[in-house]
Amino acid sequence: MSRRSLLTATVLLLTVLSVAGTADAAAPQPRPVVVLVGIAGLSAKDVSPHATPALARLAADGASGVLVVRSVRDRTCPLDAWLTLSAGERAAGPGECAPLPRVTPRQAGRTARPGQPAEYAVADWAGLARDQASTGYGAELGLLRAKLGRGRTCATAVGPGAAVALANAHGIVSRYTPTFDPTVLSASAPAAGAIGGCPLTVIDAGGLPVGAGREEALRHADALVAQVRANAGPRATVLVAGISDEPDSSETALRFAAAVGPDIDRSWLTSGSTRQNALVQLTDLPPTLTEELGIGTEEGFVGSRWRTTTGESAHGPASATTALERLRAFDTTNDVVVRYGLWVFVALVGVQVVGYGLALLVLARTRRAVWHDRAGKVALVAALVTGAVPCAAFLAGLLPWATSTLPVQSLVLALAVLTGVLAYLAARSPQDPPWAAPTTLALLTAVVLGVDVMTGSHLQGNLVTPGDLPLVGGRFFGFGNVAFAIFATSMLVAAGGLAARRVQRRDRRSAVLIVLGMGLAAVFIDGWPGWGADFGGVLALVPGVAVLVAGVAGIRLNLRRAVLIAVAAVAAVSAAAVADWLRPAESRSHLGTFVQRVIEGEAAPVIVRKAEATLASVTYGGPLGWLGILGYLAIGVLVLRPRRFRARALLDAYATWPTLAPTLHAVLVTGLVGFALNDSGVAVLAAVLMAGVPLAVLGVVRSAALTAPTTMPADVEVGTAEAGPYGPAPDSRTYEGAHKGTVDEPVEQSAEPSEGPEKSSVEPPATRVRENL
Q: What's the chain's average pLDDT?
C-alpha cells in the first residue's frame, strides 16, 4: 500500500470514529424520574419487616433516617407540611389542623386547551397565602412549582396534599389525579392531554390515624409504596417521608424518611441543614427534589438537599433491622428527654434549695462550730452534685442507653455514675486554693461542650438541654441557647479560676493573658460556622470576656469602653457571618443565611420573630418565667452588693478568691445579654444559674473553710495592692474590726502599699487555719 493510500485510510477511519463519537454524545440521556410518597404520621416505630415489608425494604436497599417535620407550630398538621413543600420554607394552614383543601377543575365545563391536561385549582389558595404573613416566616407559596417551571420540568400531583405542594403561585395544578394509578409513572414522555409521564410525581398517601384503623392504613400505605417501586422502574429515585404528624393527634414526633435509587447506596440520610447522620428536615425536601431532577438548588429554599453518608466516616446500617433500631433510638431519646427533662431541672433546683437552705438555717440557729462544719458539708455536697450534673448529662450521650431494653433506668444509672465521678474529682482537688474545686468542674464542663461542637454536636439535646432535641427543630449542630449558656458560664469561671493565682501573686500580665486567651478561644469555638455557629452567643460572650479581662487587669469600665465592647461584639459576629456567607449556599449555617436575608431585605421578619420568642418565654412561662427573672436579678444584686445584705461568707470568698467578683460579674453580664438577644429568653437565665450557682457556692464554702472566724473583709474589693476596679489585695489589708458595728463600715487601710504577701500584717487564711489545727 502506498503512503498516500495509507494516509487516506487513516483519515477515513478517524472521520468515522469522530462521527460515531458525536452520535453517542448527542444521544439523549434518560430523564431522571423522581417519586415522592408522603404518609402523614409514619414513624420508624411503624416500620418492620413483618408488618410493612415494602417500607422495611427501603431501609435495607437505600438510605434512611428520621425526619423532623417541625413547621410553624409545635405540631405539624398535613396541610402545614404540604404548604411547607410548596414554599420551601416553614408554612402553616389556618387554625389547628385544618383539613386539606378541595381540589376542583379550574372552571366547571371549561374545555382544556388542545394537547394540555385539564387544570385544577386548590380552594381558598389566596387565603392560605395571606395566612403566611402572620407566621413570622413569610413563606412564598408556589415556589417549588416556580423552580420546576424554570427548569421546564412537568410534575404530576396525586391526592389533595400533593396538589397543594405542586400548585403555582395562584393555586393552579397542571396535572392532577385524586387517586394513584400506576400509569402516572410511565417512563415515556407525557402524551398530549395525559397526566402521567412527568419526571416528578408527588403522591399524597393519606395519613395514619391514632388508635383504631392505624394497622389497616399502614398496610394500605405499604402496598402503595410497593406499587410505586414496581412501576417506577429501576432508574427511578423513590423518596418516602412521614410528611407530618397524625391529623387526629395532639402530639408530635420524629417521622420516618427513606430514599432509594440508582445513585443511592445503603447508608444514612443527612443534609447540610442538620449535619447529623440519619437526620433530615421537612424543609430539605424541596431542594432534594430539584437536585434529583437536575434543576439545581437556587436561593430561596431554606433547607438543603438530602445526601447520604456514603464515603464519609459514618457508614450505613448493616441491615434493615440495624437501621430501624438506630431510627427508633432517636424516638426513644426524644420521648425520655421530653418526659423527664423538666423533672431533672426541678431536682437540681430542689437539691440546691434544700441543701443551701438547710445550711443557712443551721448557721442562723446555732454558733456551735461542729454544726457550722456540718452545714458547710451539706452545702458542699449539694454544690458538688448539682455542679457536676450538666457535664454528666452531656457525657451520658456517649453511652447507648436509648437502645437498652430499659432506657429510662439506663439513663438514670449513667447520669448518677458520671455525676458521682465528676463530683469526686472536684472534691479531691486541693482545699487551698478555694477555687480549685469549682475551676475543676467548670473546666471539665467547658472542655466537654467545646469538644462536642468541634466534632459535630452529637451530645446536644439531653436532660439539661431538652430545647436542643431534634424534635424541637431549632438546632441540629453547634450551640443551642441553653448549651451556650452552660458553656459560657463554665468557661468564664474556669478562666477566672486559672487566673486567680496570678492575681494573688500580683502578676497581672499573666492573668490577663490567661483570661484573654481562654476568652478568645471560647468566642471562636462559639462563633465559628463549622463549630458553635452561634450568632447571639458571640454577642453575649464578648462582653462577658471583656468584663473579666477588665477586672483582672484593673481597668474601670465606663460608658465609652462599654460602647467599644459592644462594637467589638458586633464586629466579631459580623466577621463570622460574612465568612460563612462566602461559602456555598448548601454549606452555610444560619449565620450565612442571615447575611443573605439581609442582602435580600428579608432580615426584619427574622429579628421580629426572635424578639417575639424572647417575650413569649416570659409571658408563656407564667409564674416560672417571672420567678426566673426575679431570682436572677436578686442573685445579681447580692453579687454586686454583698455588704448591703451582710453576706459575710461571700465577702470572705471575694477576699480569698481574688478573681471571684469579676468572674461573677462577667457571668451576670453574659446571661443578661444572652437573655435579651437569644430567642430562648428566660431559659438562658435559668441555664446560667443552673451552671453558675453551684460553682459559686462551692467556692464560697471552700473559702469559708480557709477563713478564720474572727476575720472578715469590709468590702467586695479584690485584686492586688495596686489601684483597680476591685481594690487592693486581700492580704494587703487588715480585716479586724469588720464585725464591729455594721459590715458597711469601711476599714482603715495603711497609706503605704504592701510590699508583698510575706510582709502583710495579716497572715494568709490558710496559714492561720493550719496553725489553729
A: 83
Distance CA 75, CA 259 (A): 24
Helix, strand and coil in the chain, % to nearest 5: 55, 10, 35
Question: What's the pLDDT score for residue 699?
Answer: 92
Residue position matching grid coordinates 441553653: 482
DSSP state string for 624-684: HHHHHHHHHHHHHHHHH-TTTTT-HHHHHHHHHSTTHHHHHHHHHHHHHHHHHHSTTTHHH
DSSP state of 189: P
Phi/psi at 761 (5° precision): -75, -15
Query: What is the DSSP track for 592-637?
Result: HHHHHHHHTT-HHHHHHHHHHHHHHHHHTTHHHHHHHHHHHHHHHH
Per-residue model confidence as pLDDT tens digits over 405-449: 999 999 999 999 999 999 999 999 988 899 999 999 999 999 999
Angle (CA) 619 625 627, round 5°: 135
Q: How far apart are CA 447 and CA 684, in angstroms?
A: 20
Residue 215 has pLDDT above 60, yes or no: yes
The dihedral sign for the CA sequence 430, 431, 435, 438 = positive
- Contacts for 65 with CB less than 8 Å, ≥ 6 apart: 257, 258, 268, 269, 270, 277, 278, 279, 280, 327
DSSP states along 523-575: HHHHH-TTTT--HHHHHHHHHHHHHHHHHHHT----HHHHHHHHHHHHHHHHH
Taking CB atoms within 8 Å and a gap of at least 24, the contacts of 299-303 are 299/585, 299/596, 299/600, 300/88, 300/140, 300/143, 300/147, 301/88, 301/89, 301/143, 302/88, 302/89, 302/90, 302/273, 302/593, 303/88, 303/271, 303/273
Q: Residue 282's pLDDT is what?
A: 95
> Does the N-terminal peptide bond of residue 32 adopt cis geometry, omega within 30 degrees of 0?
no
Chain length of the chain:
773
Which region holds residue 41: left if phi is over 0, alpha if psi is between -120 and 50, else beta? left
DSSP secondary structure letter of residue 264? B
Check residue 684 and give its pLDDT: 92
Cα separation, 198 vs 683, in Å, equals 49
**Helices within 153-299 (DSSP H only):** 160-166, 214-232, 285-292
Instruction: Please say whether the beta carbons of 549 and 512 come within 8 A.
Output: yes
446/677 Cα distance (integer angstroms): 22
d(CA 577, CA 653): 40
Q: Assess contact for 625 and 682: CB atoms under 8 A.
A: yes
**Residue 203 pLDDT more than 80?**
yes
Let me know: does 462 contact 393? Beta carbons within 8 Å. Answer: yes
Residue 297 — very low, low, confident or very high, per pLDDT cuts 50/70/90?
A: low
Q: Environment class of residue 245 by beta-carbon count within 10 Å: exposed (0-12), middle (13-18) or buried (19+)?
A: buried
Question: Of the candidates 714, 737, 726, 692, which has an alpha carbon nearest to the alpha carbon of residue 648?
Answer: 714
Dihedral angle over CA of 665, 669, 674, 675, nearest 10: 100
Secondary structure (3-state) at 173? strand
Total-model pTM: 0.82
Evaluate if residue 342 carries a pLDDT over 80. Answer: yes
**Single-letter residue type at 138:** G
Cell 469600665 locates to: 557
- Quickly list H helices, 233-319: 285-292
Q: Measured between alpha carbons, how far is 700 from 706 in angstroms, rounded to an integer?
A: 10
Q: What is the pLDDT of residues 493-510, one digit of tens each?
A: 999 999 999 999 999 999
Q: CB 325: neighbour CB atoms within 10 A?
A: 14
Give the up-direction half-sphere exposure of residue 133: CA atoms within 13 A in the CB hemisphere. Answer: 4
Other beta carbons within 10 Å of 131: 20
Sign of CA pseudo-dihedral 410, 411, 417, 418: positive
* Residue 566 binned pLDDT confidence (cut-offs 50, 70, 90): very high
Grid cell 473546666 in the structure block, residue:
443
